[in-house]
Amino acid sequence: MLAGIMLTWGLIYVVRVMGVLLGNQALNFTRVSVADTLVLVSGNLFLIVLLLYPLEVVRPGWLNLKRITLLLFPYVSITLFYYIILYLLGQKPLELQDVNQFMAHIGEFNVGYRLLMILSIFAYLAFLFRLTWRYKEFYLQWCRNNYSDDNSIDILWLRQYGIGVVLIGVAYLWLLFDGNTYCFIVHNLTVQCFFCYTLYKGLFHDNPYPENFFSHTLDEADAYRKAELMDERLSVDAVPENESAFLHKLPAYQEKIADWMIDKKPYLNPSFKLMDVSDILPQNRTYLSRIFNEGFGDSFSNVVRDYRIREAEWMLANRKDIPVGQVGELCGFSSPSVFHRAFVQSHDGLTPNRYRKQTQEN
Fold first, then answer.
1. pTM across the whole model
2. pLDDT at 224 > cutoff 60
3. Whose CA is closest to 119, among 199, 176, 188?
4. In a 3-state reduction of DSSP, which class is residue 34?
């Protein structure tokens, strides 16, 4: 979906370059009329598709044909209604040279209805932003329950993506009401920077959910139940058990994992994740997550981080030959900055360097 939008935008650039090189004004469309209908219709669709991408990231499999149809129905209806009424009136979309001319014809359907088309994109922006934000916390919690690496848990890019869409929207509105060459340059630069950032994030984004986790539902509890049943069917080692049996064995499960953490130290691997625990405890993803949340009293990522911090404390105090910058890497942290941030947060602002100096002084 996102690649299709980027490809379309690239083809538009090719057409423009050809227009410049060939001197063809019809192809070199670097200036448009105010509230131009083609820009309005294509720009609205462009922004809607951009807003669907983060929603699909936090709810993979959510975007099926039915939901696409429901989401696009208001946009298609508003657009078709405009052109149908113009056809019945025997009119064509007016080309407006400036805002004053736009205001002079605002009372006519031909021009006034375009305001509704512009307002519809704000409604889409509000709806899709709200929907994405609504599921952000669950997405973040799922990452914490499955990943030990903070880089996989970071969802700051969602906020940055939203800011990028808003900036494109602002440039788009500017283009609608002042479609000169300068506006085109600003709008195009904004879109190009946004695409570069999105391409980078898209290439390196790791989907934490199992395949098709939310294909048929947006309800978390229902998705959990379906995933649990699927895990048990797919895993030959899984041990299906009822709720009371699981709760009865929970202390033993916790103790077994704690012993494994101490003896084998799997958390030293930066890519250590929840399903790696199934190597010593054959349970599905849901039960493993509950062992940490209910047994250890915290999420998988926080429990693993605590083990890594304790390992780092010992290394800072007893291995003076190892530079502080390498301690975090040896303890399983993905980068020195991630280690520094986690250590400071867990020690009330005390940095690893200061911790080492205090142990030396004592």
1. 0.67
2. no
3. 176
4. strand
pLDDT value at 12 more than 60 = yes
Joined together, the tokens standing for residue 97 give: 């040279």
Q: 71-85 burial, b for 16+ CB within 10 Å, e for fewer?
A: bbeebeebbeebeee
Question: What token pair was written down for 26?
Answer: 């019809």
Long-range contacts of 92-99 (CB under 8 A, 24+ apart): 93/37, 95/33, 95/36, 96/33, 96/34, 96/35, 97/33, 97/34, 98/34, 99/34, 99/177, 99/178
Q: Which residue has the tokens 């950032």?
A: 197
Degrees (nearest 5) of the Cα angle 214, 141, 289?
85
Q: Report the length, in residues, of the chain.
A: 362
> At residue 112, what is the residue type?
G
pLDDT per residue as tens digits for the range 243-283: 788 788 899 999 999 999 999 999 999 889 898 998 898 88
Write the pLDDT tens digit of every residue in 74-132.
Answer: 999 999 999 999 999 999 998 888 888 889 999 999 999 998 888 888 888 888 778 77
Nearest to 175 by CA among 30, 21, 292: 30
Sign of CA dihedral 62, 63, 65, 70: positive
